[in-house]
Amino acid sequence: MARHYITQATHDRIAAEFFDLTTRGRHEVADKIERAREMGDLKENGDYHAAKDEQGHMEGRIRQLEDILEDHEILPPGVEGVVSSGSIVTFLYEGDDESDAETYLIGHMEERREGVEMMSPKAPLGEALISRRVEEWVEYESPNSGTLRVRIIAVEHLA
After folding, report:
1. What is the CATH number of the domain that holds 33?
2. Structural domain tally of the chain?
3. C-beta contacts of 8-15 below 8 A and 24+ residues apart
């Protein structure tokens, strides 16, 4: 089991989702399965199969959340202008125009935000960016392109 590094806000969100799925969610799916069973022949019963499929997906999500909640560490608040896990970082590759700047959220997949691409802090670029500051140039080894350089333009921390 891997340790999960998440922000307090993400912890609170997934703890609430876990509680909801293990209480209300399980009861709703059990009711759907029971109503579908009452319709008769289970082999040809689409409602039954759909409810069982929903139950399987929900139980998978419950196990995923349980794994995170059992072995996690809450990230400390980020330092202004310094990249850390849980940061949204905007950077520019050497030689690119300002309009080519890229923005990524560096962190755990549960930290994802709509409209922002994710990058693992364990990815070559993610690892190179951690603890670096706005306006710093960062070099890293790209698995496909060799040594690349980026300049950090902005850092925003998740709440």
Report:
1. 1.10.287.180
2. 2
3. 8/74, 8/75, 9/158, 9/159, 10/108, 10/110, 10/111, 10/158, 11/69, 11/72, 11/74, 13/110, 14/65, 14/68, 14/69, 14/110, 15/69
Q: Which residues contact 11 (CB under 8 A, 6 or more apart)?
A: 69, 72, 74
- Residue 94 in tokens: 């050497």
d(Cα 84, Cα 10) in Å, to the nearest integer?
A: 15
Asked if residue 152 belongs to a domain, the reply is yes
Shared domain for 42 and 64, answered yes or no, is yes
What HEC string does 49-110 produce? HHHHHHHHHHHHHHHHHHHHHHCEEECCCCCCCECCCCEEEEEEECCCCHHHCEEEEECCHH
Residues of the domain holding 59: 4-74
Per-residue pLDDT tens over the stretch 37-89: 888 777 777 888 899 999 999 999 999 999 999 999 999 888 999 999 999 99
Matching residue, tokens 């608040």: 77
What CATH number is associated with residue 122?
Answer: 3.10.50.30
In a domain, 82, yes or no: no
